Recover the amino acids of this structure.
């Protein structure tokens, strides 16, 4: 048996029983190899030291000290709430803003824009449409008729009546 | 009252039932934490943290394993986080002794078995602390806490075969580190 195999079986024997055949082979190797005997003692010694661990007494009032910490779990601080919800709120807020912007764009009808006379002519619109005097379908305002009539009487360019 | 009933009551909101579970497992949690930290205050903090995590996760506990095993799993994970976070100065308790003095004491004065054993124990623990965290944890669970393979397998969520191989590697590495420490400090490591 090689020492490497012996070491493997020594380590295995610390946790599991070896088969009879393995035990005999290991015992025979142990008799011949001082290094493997020492190795086995080292491993057994290490385990013994670890198993003999001394534990100090835990600090007193463990449960009494734990209780307030558990209580604080039920009342999350503002910071904890922000941590939990803050990051989720950002995309939600953006979505709401986009929604309202789109709604405003499509649902609210635009005000008619005021165009200059040149603009109206470009758009093939009557620039004088607001001028009621010249509107053909608007009935004559008697007051305005009298006004123009008086102007006509005083004007030198008054056309002679036929 | 057994663990199952206490857990059900605690899940229903009984603080007393959770307190009973804490009382039952606090020493075990403390001992596990102490094995890994070798510091009483740190072990106490770690044990408290384990129970806080257990309290928060208790509504999700579905009795797929024993409560103790589940609690140990939380403790192991919390300990691993602690080992990763803490930058600990590796304690070499014999560093102030000049090389060779250990052997001089053996030969020139009466052998003080208790002192020698204490020194070897500290050397072994220093070597244990220097191991990678997965080896520290498995040696602690197996050799210090004495858990069987099956429970270790459940706590660490690894197969029994992996427990076996990891344990073997851990012990080999521990021995190597102890020998290195012993050579640095002078003298032979002898049990």
């Amino acid at each position: 048996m090689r020492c490497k195999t012996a070491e493997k079986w020594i380590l295995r024997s610390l946790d599991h029983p070896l088969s009879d055949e393995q035990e005999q082979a290991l015992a025979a190797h142990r008799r011949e190899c001082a290094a493997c005997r020492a190795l086995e003692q080292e491993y057994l010694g290490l385990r013994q030291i670890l198993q003999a661990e001394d534990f100090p007494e835990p600090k007193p009032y463990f449960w009494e000290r734990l209780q307030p910490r558990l209580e604080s779990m039920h009342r999350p601080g503002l910071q904890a709430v922000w941590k939990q919800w803050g990051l989720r709120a950002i995309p939600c807020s953006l979505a709401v803003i986009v929604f309202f912007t789109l709604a405003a764009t499509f649902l609210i009808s635009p005000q008619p824009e005021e165009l200059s006379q040149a603009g109206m002519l470009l758009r093939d619109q009557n620039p004088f449409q607001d001028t009621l005097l010249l509107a053909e379908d608007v009935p004559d305002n008697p007051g305005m008729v009298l006004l123009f009539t008086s102007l006509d009487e005083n004007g030198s360019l008054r056309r002679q009546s036929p | 009252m057994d663990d199952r009933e206490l857990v059900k009551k605690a899940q229903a909101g009984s603080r007393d039932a959770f307190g009973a579970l804490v009382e039952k497992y606090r020493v075990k949690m403390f001992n596990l934490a102490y094995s890994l930290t070798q510091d009483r205050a740190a072990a106490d903090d770690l044990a408290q943290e384990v129970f806080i995590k257990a309290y928060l996760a208790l509504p999700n506990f579905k009795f797929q394993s024993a409560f103790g095993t589940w609690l140990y799993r939380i403790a192991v994970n919390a300990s691993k986080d602690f080992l990763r976070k803490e930058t600990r100065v590796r304690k070499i308790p014999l560093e102030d002794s000049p090389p060779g003095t250990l052997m001089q004491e053996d030969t020139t004065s009466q052998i003080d078995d208790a002192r020698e054993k204490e020194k070897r124990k500290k050397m072994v623990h220093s070597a244990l602390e220097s191991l990678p965290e997965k080896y520290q944890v498995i040696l602690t669970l197996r050799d210090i806490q004495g858990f069987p393979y099956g429970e270790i397998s459940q706590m660490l969520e690894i197969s029994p075969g992996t427990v076996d191989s990891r344990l073997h590697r851990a012990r080999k590495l521990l021995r190597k580190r102890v020998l290195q420490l012993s050579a640095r400090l002078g003298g032979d490591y002898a049990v």
Observations:
- Chain B has a mean pLDDT of 83.
- Chain B touches chain A through 41 residues (CB under 8 Å).
- The first helix of chain B runs from residue 3 to 11.
- The CA atoms of residues 73 and 155 of chain B lie 5 Å apart.
